[in-house]
Amino acid sequence: METMRLRRTRRDRLRPSSWLLKVTMAVTGLIWVAFVLIHLFGNLKVFSGAEAFDSYARWLRTAFYPFLPKGFLLWTMRIILIICLLLHVMCAYILWSRGRKRGSRTTRRSVWSRPTEGQSKIQAVSAALMPLTGVLIFAFIIIHILDLTTGTPPVATEQFVAATTETSSAYANLVASMQRPVMAGIYALTMALLAVHVFHGVRTAASDLGTTGHSWRQLFLWTAGLCALVILLGNGTIPILVQLGVIQ
Predict the structure, then answer these.
(1) What is the pTM (predicted TM-score) of this model?
(2) Angstrom distance (rounded) from CA 65 to CA 92
(3) Which tens digits make up the pLDDT trace of 89-103?
(4) FRET partner for 186 with CA separation of 20 to 30 A, picked from 81, 103, 138, 210?
């Protein structure tokens, strides 16, 4: 028995604290939010036409050349984002597992009807949806890569043209993909889920990072709402406008 207690004690010491897991989730989540907003800025060039959108896609592959090798910025971003994504998912799973062991399922169900102190109904619902939206967003990232980065069938269209450092068909690839009603629906729906996920994630980052002042919490709350709205209106309208023939 004593040996088993010692083993459990050693194992518990090696386990990361919930505080560390939450801080890691907050930091990696904010990095991803920053990327989504930057990516949104690039996506908005679709409204300027094929030349502007394709030029931006080519620039990403040749940024700061010859000072940096071609593709250096793009691959650096990808590596950082992959590491952040893996850490974010891992921490989320550990915290979720610990919550289940403490019998938190009852708490999660009650959140739909009785928001905790200081929460609005919208905040309570967004908190309850976090595990579901997280899983669906992760699945969407895989679909998005197969569709518009690697051009892997049957996710991508038959018209997909791979990009090089000199040429890009990003605009044509995007329009061809969004002209499929099912894919357009997936993209639009995922942007709504992403908006919910970002709203709750940015808002709770204030607590996870140790921010206690009312002014700072309000700043995080308004920032969360603004980021969610921009993502929903910016990225979410693109597949709809392609379906309507406004972007073609």
Answers:
(1) 0.85
(2) 38
(3) 999 999 988 888 776
(4) 81
